[in-house]
UniProtKB/TrEMBL annotation:
Transmembrane domains' residue ranges: 110-133, 145-167, 173-197, 227-249, 335-352, 359-386, 398-419, 449-471, 483-506
EC number(s) from the headed UniProt entry: 2.4.1.-
Listed Pfam families: Alg6_Alg8 (PF03155)
Major localization class: endoplasmic reticulum
Gene that this sequence comes from: Alg6
Species this protein is from: Chaetops frenatus (Rufous rock-jumper)
Keyword Glycosyltransferase: yes
Protein name per its UniProtKB record: Alpha-1,3-glucosyltransferase
Protein's job: Dolichyl pyrophosphate Man9GlcNAc2 alpha-1,3-glucosyltransferase that operates in the biosynthetic pathway of dolichol-linked oligosaccharides, the glycan precursors employed in protein asparagine (N)-glycosylation. The assembly of dolichol-linked oligosaccharides begins on the cytosolic side of the endoplasmic reticulum membrane and finishes in its lumen. The sequential addition of sugars to dolichol pyrophosphate produces dolichol-linked oligosaccharides containing fourteen sugars, including two GlcNAcs, nine mannoses and three glucoses.
Length: 517
């Protein structure tokens, strides 16, 4: 009972923080004509409720795709329809065709915020709790609850979901998939991940680790015996899951092609991750390599869109290849979790049409290994939240950012004593350090160096946060501070990518992993 009491307190605290953040502003509040992501979610409810399925993804007189047209997979549309059905029962004006555009009221805000809370309570939070209880390293009652507390108080996800406005369903389903795989429920895990992918196409960030881990398990079992049977079951499960999600669109090839065109609008170019006319998003402020390089080289003016796509694909593929090969050859649950981080970070840094919110696809897998590398995980999660600062300032979320971020750091300091976990062994770099035989003397001062870099990083992020909030930019350089935030964050992420790949490639022991047979 004690462990459940501690976990109950943890969940109540996490919900309280979410409720407090939800009281504030949201994306695009009172900013016509496009408003923001809050209006996008409301508009999808309007469209899915009032129009037949065959019109959901097509441009018509009743569905102007330039005004927040649906650009997510079918499960998002179905979820919007369910929310719209409930909204219609409460107040038909909320989803009235055409006339509800830009609708804003306190009752409607309460309804929309409640739908996010329900998604959190039904999908994301239970997955986190069960995951923390399943960790062998956190079998102690207190450790499971503190691990859950750190994950549930991660400010980036709270500020985006309950402040900016977004649903945590795809990440929650992906967590359920990881949880299933950790218990060898491979078919259930495949279903859960297919659902996540059919809710948001950005779950492709996690697709290769899932594929490589399960394929590696099949290889280990032998493709002439149990492995072949497992491979056939997995293939059948994936096909059936996709067929079920796409069934209403499967009768018309043009329907399928139109949905795919909406999901992957490659003609927008390397940087255009969002609607052209949205005033709430500026793709030049994403903390990835292309936007950072554009400060020095205007890539859009030098390279054609098709070449941009090919270059982006090549660099992304090469950057995630080592981790994927290692996971396929030596499949382990620990390697799988680290590969989720590494591959998602490669996608964020190098892939096509990246949005600043996509860093959450890296941050959530990092949360899953916070018990293994608490120092580096905490550092990454702080940087990922900092990288969202320009977006949060636009949405009026400075105060929640200023409160939740230091609070998260304090919780991690108290829970894991992270400043004491900076040795090569604590950072999972012991094998790497042993391979550098001639440089071992340098590693003796490694903990002190890494702590100094951490404190320097915190100071830099703190200064840029204060300047961004309090100091007006020069008229000649209006985006100076947002670009500085993006470039500083990008440099951090590049170093983290190197670190995670080193941990993956030099890990030959697969500590604590069950033998796959």
């Amino acid at each position: 009972m004690e462990k459940w009491s501690l976990m109950t307190v943890t969940v109540l605290l996490a919900l309280t923080v979410r409720w407090a953040v939800s009281l504030g502003s949201y994306s695009g509040a009172g900013k016509p004509p496009m408003y923001g992501d809050y209006e996008a979610q409301r508009h999808w409810q309007e469209i899915t409720y009032n129009l037949p399925i065959r019109q959901w993804y097509f441009n018509t007189s009743d569905n102007n795709l330039l005004y927040w047209g649906l650009d997510y997979p079918p499960l998002t549309a179905y979820h919007s329809f369910v929310c719209a059905y409930i909204a219609k029962l409460i107040n038909p004006d909320w989803v009235a065709l055409h006339t509800s555009r830009g609708y804003e009221s306190q009752p409607h805000k309460l309804f929309m915020r409640t739908t996010v809370f329900v998604a959190d309570l039904l999908v994301y939070i239970p997955a986190v709790i069960l995951y923390c209880f399943s960790l062998k390293e956190t079998s102690a009652k207190k450790k499971a609850s503190t691990c859950a507390l750190c994950i549930l108080l991660y400010p980036g996800l709270i500020l985006i979901d309950h402040g900016h406005f977004q649903y945590p369903l795809s990440l929650g389903l992906a967590l359920w998939a990881v949880l299933c795989l950790s218990h060898d429920w491979d078919l259930l895990g495949s279903v859960a991940f297919c659902l996540a992918l059919n809710y948001k196409q950005m779950e492709l960030y996690h697709s290769l680790p899932f594929f490589c881990y399960l394929l590696g398990k099949c290889f280990k079992k032998g493709l002439k015996g149990k492995g072949l049977v497992l491979l056939a079951k997995l293939a059948g499960t994936v096909l059936l899951s996709f067929a079920a999600c796409w069934l209403p669109f499967g009768t018309d090839v043009e329907q399928i092609m139109q949905v795919l065109r909406r999901l992957f609008p490659i003609d927008r170019g390397l940087f255009e991750a969002c609607m052209f006319s949205s005033p709430t998003h500026c793709p030049d402020k994403v903390a990835n390599i292309w936007c950072s390089l554009s400060v020095l080289i205007k890539i859009k003016n030098v390279i054609s869109p098709r070449t941009q796509l090919k270059l982006s694909f090549a660099v992304t593929f090469l950057s995630l290849l080592p981790a994927c090969i290692k996971l396929t050859v030596q499949p382990s649950l620990r390697g799988f979790k680290f590969a989720l981080v590494s591959c998602a970070l490669s996608f964020f840094l190098f892939s096509f049409q990246v949005h600043e919110k996509s860093i959450l696809l890296v941050a959530v897998p990092v949360c899953l290994i916070i018990n293994e590398i608490p120092f580096m995980a905490t550092w990454f999660l702080l940087v990922s939240t900092f990288s969202l600062l320009p977006l949060l300032l636009k949405d009026g979320l400075l105060l929640p950012y200023a409160v939740t971020t230091p609070a998260f750091l304090a919780v991690c300091l108290a829970s894991f004593s992270i400043l004491e976990k900076t040795s090569a062994e604590d950072l999972q770099l012991k094998a790497f350090s042993l391979s550098l035989k001639g440089y071992m003397s340098w590693f003796k001062s490694f903990p002190r160096i890494i702590r100094s870099l951490f404190l320097l990083s915190l100071s830099l992020m703190g200064v840029l946060s204060v300047l961004s909030a309090a100091v007006p930019p020069p008229q000649s350089l209006p985006d100076l501070l947002p670009v500085a935030v993006a470039v500083v964050s990008c440099l951090h992420f590049l170093l983290f990518l190197v670190y995670f790949n080193v941990v993956i490639l030099w890990d030959s022991k697969n500590r604590g992993q069950k033998k796959i047979s």
